[in-house]
Amino acid sequence: MDNDNILKGYSMLLYFAGSLILNEPQEDCINDLASSNMFWKMPLKSNNPDYIIATSFLHHINDTMEIDYHEIKNDYLTLFGEKDKPLAPPYKSVYLSDEHLTNHKQAATLKHIYKTYGWHSPACGKIHEDHLGIELLFLNLLIEKYFDMDDGICKKEIKTDIKKFIKNHLASWVSDWNRDIQKNASSNLYRGIGYLVTACIADVYNLF
Questions:
Q1: Sequential DSSP letters for the chain
Q2: For the segment 145-186, what is each residue's pLDDT rounded down to a tens digit?
Protein backbone atom coordinates (compact mmCIF):
# COMPACT_ATOMS: atom_id res chain seq x y z
CA MET A 1 0.00 0.00 0.00
CA ASP A 2 1.50 3.37 -1.04
CA ASN A 3 1.72 6.39 1.25
CA ASP A 4 -1.28 8.17 -0.30
CA ASN A 5 -3.59 5.21 0.34
CA ILE A 6 -2.19 4.84 3.87
CA LEU A 7 -2.90 8.53 4.53
CA LYS A 8 -6.44 8.12 3.21
CA GLY A 9 -6.91 5.29 5.71
CA TYR A 10 -5.69 7.50 8.55
CA SER A 11 -7.95 10.29 7.31
CA MET A 12 -10.96 8.01 7.66
CA LEU A 13 -9.91 6.89 11.14
CA LEU A 14 -9.30 10.48 12.30
CA TYR A 15 -12.78 11.48 11.15
CA PHE A 16 -14.28 8.47 12.88
CA ALA A 17 -12.45 9.09 16.17
CA GLY A 18 -13.11 12.83 16.12
CA SER A 19 -16.83 12.31 15.58
CA LEU A 20 -17.14 9.85 18.48
CA ILE A 21 -15.31 12.25 20.80
CA LEU A 22 -17.29 15.28 19.66
CA ASN A 23 -20.77 13.72 19.53
CA GLU A 24 -22.62 11.34 21.81
CA PRO A 25 -22.85 8.01 19.95
CA GLN A 26 -26.31 6.86 19.02
CA GLU A 27 -27.41 3.29 19.59
CA ASP A 28 -28.22 2.58 15.95
CA CYS A 29 -24.78 3.88 14.94
CA ILE A 30 -23.04 1.54 17.41
CA ASN A 31 -25.15 -1.38 16.24
CA ASP A 32 -24.26 -0.58 12.63
CA LEU A 33 -20.55 -0.52 13.52
CA ALA A 34 -20.88 -3.92 15.14
CA SER A 35 -22.91 -5.53 12.36
CA SER A 36 -20.54 -4.22 9.68
CA ASN A 37 -17.51 -5.76 11.40
CA MET A 38 -15.70 -2.55 10.49
CA PHE A 39 -12.99 -3.11 13.05
CA TRP A 40 -12.08 -6.46 11.56
CA LYS A 41 -11.57 -4.68 8.22
CA MET A 42 -9.43 -1.76 9.33
CA PRO A 43 -8.30 0.36 6.35
CA LEU A 44 -4.60 -0.07 7.15
CA LYS A 45 -2.02 -1.85 9.27
CA SER A 46 0.56 -0.27 11.54
CA ASN A 47 3.38 -1.51 13.73
CA ASN A 48 2.74 1.34 16.16
CA PRO A 49 2.13 -0.37 19.55
CA ASP A 50 -0.74 2.02 20.30
CA TYR A 51 -2.44 1.07 17.03
CA ILE A 52 -2.11 -2.62 17.84
CA ILE A 53 -3.63 -2.07 21.29
CA ALA A 54 -6.41 0.03 19.75
CA THR A 55 -7.41 -2.74 17.34
CA SER A 56 -7.34 -5.31 20.15
CA PHE A 57 -10.06 -3.31 21.93
CA LEU A 58 -12.03 -2.36 18.83
CA HIS A 59 -12.17 -5.94 17.54
CA HIS A 60 -14.67 -6.59 20.33
CA ILE A 61 -17.17 -4.38 18.49
CA ASN A 62 -18.47 -7.00 16.05
CA ASP A 63 -21.55 -8.96 15.09
CA THR A 64 -20.71 -11.93 17.33
CA MET A 65 -20.40 -9.97 20.59
CA GLU A 66 -23.17 -8.49 22.69
CA ILE A 67 -22.77 -4.71 22.65
CA ASP A 68 -23.59 -2.82 25.83
CA TYR A 69 -24.76 0.51 24.44
CA HIS A 70 -25.46 1.94 27.90
CA GLU A 71 -21.83 1.29 28.90
CA ILE A 72 -20.64 3.14 25.79
CA LYS A 73 -23.03 6.05 26.35
CA ASN A 74 -22.05 6.27 30.01
CA ASP A 75 -18.38 6.35 28.98
CA TYR A 76 -19.05 9.29 26.66
CA LEU A 77 -20.90 11.22 29.36
CA THR A 78 -18.46 10.56 32.19
CA LEU A 79 -15.30 10.96 30.11
CA PHE A 80 -16.27 14.01 28.08
CA GLY A 81 -19.52 15.30 29.61
CA GLU A 82 -20.01 18.98 30.24
CA LYS A 83 -22.43 18.93 33.19
CA ASP A 84 -20.21 17.18 35.71
CA LYS A 85 -16.43 17.24 35.86
CA PRO A 86 -15.32 15.01 32.97
CA LEU A 87 -12.82 12.27 33.77
CA ALA A 88 -10.91 12.65 30.48
CA PRO A 89 -11.68 16.19 29.32
CA PRO A 90 -11.00 16.43 25.57
CA TYR A 91 -9.38 19.86 25.74
CA LYS A 92 -5.75 20.74 25.12
CA SER A 93 -5.92 23.65 27.56
CA VAL A 94 -7.06 21.40 30.41
CA TYR A 95 -3.77 19.53 30.25
CA LEU A 96 -1.55 22.50 29.48
CA SER A 97 -3.18 25.34 31.42
CA ASP A 98 -4.94 25.81 34.77
CA GLU A 99 -7.08 28.49 33.16
CA HIS A 100 -8.65 26.43 30.42
CA LEU A 101 -12.10 27.94 30.75
CA THR A 102 -10.82 31.44 30.09
CA ASN A 103 -7.87 30.65 27.86
CA HIS A 104 -8.74 33.21 25.18
CA LYS A 105 -5.24 33.21 23.69
CA GLN A 106 -5.49 29.48 22.93
CA ALA A 107 -8.92 29.94 21.36
CA ALA A 108 -7.74 32.90 19.29
CA THR A 109 -4.74 30.96 17.97
CA LEU A 110 -6.87 28.04 16.83
CA LYS A 111 -9.56 30.33 15.39
CA HIS A 112 -6.89 31.98 13.28
CA ILE A 113 -5.58 28.62 12.05
CA TYR A 114 -9.08 27.42 11.18
CA LYS A 115 -9.90 30.70 9.45
CA THR A 116 -6.72 30.51 7.37
CA TYR A 117 -8.12 27.38 5.75
CA GLY A 118 -11.67 28.73 5.53
CA TRP A 119 -12.89 26.11 7.99
CA HIS A 120 -15.65 26.56 10.54
CA SER A 121 -16.02 24.14 13.42
CA PRO A 122 -19.27 22.12 13.30
CA ALA A 123 -19.77 23.16 16.94
CA CYS A 124 -18.79 26.82 16.44
CA GLY A 125 -19.83 28.92 19.43
CA LYS A 126 -20.85 25.89 21.48
CA ILE A 127 -17.55 24.13 22.19
CA HIS A 128 -14.10 25.58 22.72
CA GLU A 129 -11.80 25.49 19.70
CA ASP A 130 -9.23 23.30 21.47
CA HIS A 131 -11.67 20.39 21.81
CA LEU A 132 -9.94 17.22 20.62
CA GLY A 133 -12.84 16.22 18.40
CA ILE A 134 -12.67 19.54 16.58
CA GLU A 135 -8.89 19.40 16.24
CA LEU A 136 -9.04 15.88 14.78
CA LEU A 137 -11.69 16.91 12.25
CA PHE A 138 -9.52 19.87 11.24
CA LEU A 139 -6.47 17.62 10.87
CA ASN A 140 -8.58 15.38 8.66
CA LEU A 141 -9.48 18.44 6.56
CA LEU A 142 -5.78 19.32 6.13
CA ILE A 143 -5.04 15.80 4.88
CA GLU A 144 -7.93 16.02 2.41
CA LYS A 145 -6.64 19.37 1.14
CA TYR A 146 -3.22 17.83 0.72
CA PHE A 147 -4.72 15.34 -1.73
CA ASP A 148 -6.63 18.06 -3.58
CA MET A 149 -3.48 20.07 -4.31
CA ASP A 150 -1.72 19.55 -7.64
CA ASP A 151 0.89 22.23 -7.17
CA GLY A 152 4.08 20.89 -5.56
CA ILE A 153 4.79 24.07 -3.60
CA CYS A 154 1.27 24.15 -2.13
CA LYS A 155 1.49 20.48 -1.18
CA LYS A 156 4.79 21.16 0.56
CA GLU A 157 3.23 24.05 2.51
CA ILE A 158 0.31 21.91 3.66
CA LYS A 159 2.69 19.13 4.73
CA THR A 160 4.51 21.70 6.84
CA ASP A 161 1.22 22.96 8.31
CA ILE A 162 0.10 19.41 9.13
CA LYS A 163 3.30 18.62 11.01
CA LYS A 164 3.22 21.97 12.79
CA PHE A 165 -0.43 21.51 13.80
CA ILE A 166 0.23 18.03 15.19
CA LYS A 167 3.34 19.15 17.05
CA ASN A 168 1.86 22.36 18.51
CA HIS A 169 -1.74 21.34 19.16
CA LEU A 170 -1.98 17.56 19.57
CA ALA A 171 1.24 15.70 20.34
CA SER A 172 1.94 17.68 23.51
CA TRP A 173 -1.09 16.38 25.42
CA VAL A 174 -2.99 13.50 23.80
CA SER A 175 -0.90 10.85 25.57
CA ASP A 176 -1.93 12.32 28.94
CA TRP A 177 -5.53 12.42 27.74
CA ASN A 178 -5.32 8.76 26.69
CA ARG A 179 -3.97 7.81 30.12
CA ASP A 180 -7.14 9.31 31.61
CA ILE A 181 -9.21 7.36 29.08
CA GLN A 182 -7.56 4.06 30.03
CA LYS A 183 -7.92 4.82 33.73
CA ASN A 184 -11.61 5.69 33.59
CA ALA A 185 -13.24 4.09 30.52
CA SER A 186 -15.25 0.90 30.83
CA SER A 187 -16.10 0.16 27.21
CA ASN A 188 -13.86 -1.44 24.62
CA LEU A 189 -14.96 1.24 22.18
CA TYR A 190 -13.58 4.23 24.05
CA ARG A 191 -10.51 2.45 25.33
CA GLY A 192 -9.79 1.63 21.70
CA ILE A 193 -10.53 5.19 20.58
CA GLY A 194 -8.00 6.52 23.10
CA TYR A 195 -5.17 4.45 21.67
CA LEU A 196 -6.38 4.96 18.10
CA VAL A 197 -6.03 8.74 18.47
CA THR A 198 -2.47 8.61 19.82
CA ALA A 199 -1.45 6.10 17.14
CA CYS A 200 -2.99 8.00 14.22
CA ILE A 201 -1.45 11.31 15.28
CA ALA A 202 2.03 9.80 15.62
CA ASP A 203 1.80 7.82 12.39
CA VAL A 204 0.51 10.75 10.31
CA TYR A 205 3.29 12.96 11.64
CA ASN A 206 5.89 10.38 10.68
CA LEU A 207 4.39 9.86 7.22
CA PHE A 208 4.76 13.56 6.46
A1: --HHHHHHHHHHHHHHHHHHHHSPPPHHHHHHHHHHTGGGS-S-----HHHHHHHHHHTTSSTTS---HHHHHHHHHHHH-SSS--SS--BHHHHH-TTGGG-HHHHHHHHHHHHHTT---TTTTTS-TTBHHHHHHHHHHHHHHHHH---HHHHHHHHHHHHHHHHHHTTTTHHHHHHHHHHH--SHHHHHHHHHHHHHHHHHHHH-
A2: 888 887 788 888 999 999 999 999 999 999 999 999 999 999
